[in-house]
Structures are given as C-alpha cells and as structure tokens.
Amino acid sequence: MQIMTAIQEADALCPNPYTLSEKLLWCDEVSAAVRREVLKTYDTISVTWDGVQPLLLPDDICFEDIEALYANGQLMEKSDFRTVAKHALQYFGTGFSCPTELRAVYLTKPAPIREIEIRGTFNTNEDFIAMEAPPFTEGDTISFVVLTDQDADPDWESAKDVLVLDTSLDGIFLENESIEAQSGVPMAIRRIITDDTEIDEAPYDRMYIEYILAKMALYQHDYTGYTAHMTQYNTLFDSLKRDYKTRAPLTELANFKNYWR
What we know:
261 residues
C-alpha cells in the first residue's frame, strides 16, 4: 500500500484538520517500529579507532543500533562496547597494537518520507530545471506548475508530472522535452509522494491507517476512539511479528561470526 493511500483512507473514515506533514510523521513512526521490532534489516560500517579516543559513529547511527562489533575478525560482546578500551587487552592481547579499524553491524532505520515543495524563479531548458543544490533525487516524480508570480497560489490540478532522471549541483534533469525552455519563470515544484508502507502486505499494511486514526483521536481527546484504534494497531503488529518470525529466512541476523571477512 502506498503511504498516501493509507492517509486518504484514514481521512475518508474520519475527516480531520490535521496536515499532511503531521500524518507523514505518524507514518514514519509506524515504519520505524516495524523496521526495529520486526524486519530488523542490518548493514555494516567501518569505524576508525586509535585505542584512546571514543569511537566515532556517523550521526545517523546510535550506539543502541549496533548489534555486533568485530575487531580483527573477533566478535566483541555487546556488554563490553561501552568500555572497549578497558577490554582491549582481553581482545587484542598484551603484545598486539590497537586496531585502526573496527567493523560494526547495525540495525538500519527507514528514511523519513520526503515531503518537498519549493517555489522560485527558474531557468529551464526542455529537459532541465536549474536550481542550486536541488532537494530532489534520481527517480523522484515531481509536479510543477507555472505561476503568475511567486506569491500566487499554485493550481496543482493543472500541474504537470514528470520523472527526475538525474540531478547535479545546479539542477535536475527530466524526461525528454518535458518542459519549455524559458528564463526566469516563476514556478512551484513539489515531490509526488509514492513511498510504500514499510510492510507492503495485507492485512498488516492497515496498521498505518489504524495508527493515523488513533493519533487523530488522541489529539481530539477522544480517548475511547484512541484506545479502540490502538487495540487494532497492536493486534496487527503482534500478528505481524509472529507471522514474520515463522516465515523469515533468517531470524537471528546479528549472530554472525567473522562477518567482515
């Protein structure tokens, strides 16, 4: 199910004043919970360590995301992560120099849904829109509409949809001849949200609908409705965990040995 489909179904069941940005944030919360507690997708990184200074991790990886740490191919116990220097002799021996590289296995998190809308004056050339540091990426579908001036409200009903084929530091490349060549044309451009739910399988994808409905009920102080929708959400979530554990080809993804070799 697409994220926007879940939001539209929730809106149809319960008309509400909440913004698309708020609903996308709630969908991100569901995706994060599914990835962390059910799917548990892992990746690896190499980090440099001088044996003295704290281990430096990328900003988007928390200590709690690390499931296994390997030093020279040897697995370290997670309980020793916080005091790696203290246990250096235990793992590397008295005559062994401290490693300069460690390999960490960490739990990945889904990227937040990108809701992007920009306005400005742009130069175009049939298959290119010039813009500095474009926020769009290859594979995005964008919708654009020419404005009478930058302060005008865009008529998205008349907008044209086009695929972004590539990007550069100074603009985006579109499908061939998808836009008229002009200079200094005022435009509104937004990304069409085509993201799928993290678990794209019925009936579990309906967790998103129940969670959106629960959030709306909570902020409207409808605690009976909130409890009812969260009960449905938790029932689907628990059923997914049991089902996935049964069907998943690997259920202990962190227990690799010499993972980096």
